[in-house]
Amino acid sequence: MPLAFSRTLIILGTTSLVSASVLADYPERSIELIVAYSAGGGTDVAARTLVPYLEKHLDGDITVINRPGAGGEVGFSALANAEPDGYTIGFINTPNVFTIPIERDTRYELSDLYPIANVIDDPAGISVHPESPFQSFEDLVEYAKAHPGEINYGTSGVGGDDHLTALALEQLAGIEMTHIPFPGAADVRQALMGGHIDLGIINVSEVASAAKAGQVRQLVQGGEERWEKASDVPTFKELGYDLTMGSARGLAAPAGVPEEIIEKISQAAQAALEEQEFRTAADEQSLPLSYLGPKEYQDMLEKQQARFQALWDESPWGQE
């Protein structure tokens, strides 16, 4: 049974009453799209870049609502607990969407969400201020070994892919650093450019424009291979560390939304991603596109959830 169908069984009778004419009229009013991170971050940029094209293919209005806080928990909870009528959707981010309920009691579970379409797959990365003494990733590791706990790093919250990148690196390299969580990637980037933190551990797309402008310097990235827009930045694997990490970002709805509406939104998202105009806009925003439909997206989420649950069972993070 699909992970997001826990509410669907409860409302099965009402779902069967959804007529073709009702679906044809959907949406009849404005849709709210919740972003669980602050304005200007990678998820927000992706959402606002996608929305005009999604509106076009849905033939309706969409309003982006930022609900940052607690590493994404505030926004994910708002999405999961919204009315399952198709008029509240949102972006969800891996691994936060399932690591947060693994770590602590929350007002939502992954099963409270209905995956619609994955849109982005973005590698994690480590960046520094242009005037940082760390000219390379090797410089960073060498200094961290000699000065335990002295280097601080910013992330968008405990349990996110950037935080887990840092914890994995500490384990693999035998180093210790100090974590400073922020509400979102835009806040981390701002703190890094202002020289308030030593490292910004942020997805590569979220610092691509700042790196191009010389406002930050990227040291390493967490993809299996180098992202084409950061082709001069080595991967952890190239540098001898068996570490890959990133964030997939996609659309979801509260569980219980009629399957026909989910499919309609998913098809609109796919059509948007296939538009050359959107792909050009996404390229200008340095968005690494990766479409998955509801079933494929659900399968990916389930597999990653199992992977991180096993990691937590072996060695809980966030205990520093």
UniProtKB/TrEMBL annotation:
The lineage of its organism: Bacteria, Pseudomonadati, Pseudomonadota, Gammaproteobacteria, Oceanospirillales. Gene3D superfamilies: Bordetella uptake gene, domain 1, Periplasmic binding protein-like II. It comes from the Bacteria. It comes from Vreelandella olivaria. Keywords: Signal. Transmembrane segments: none annotated. The keyword Signal applies. Pfam families: TctC. Residues 1-24 form the signal peptide. This is Recombinase RecA. CDD domains: PBP2_Bug_TTT. Belongs to the UPF0065 (bug) family.
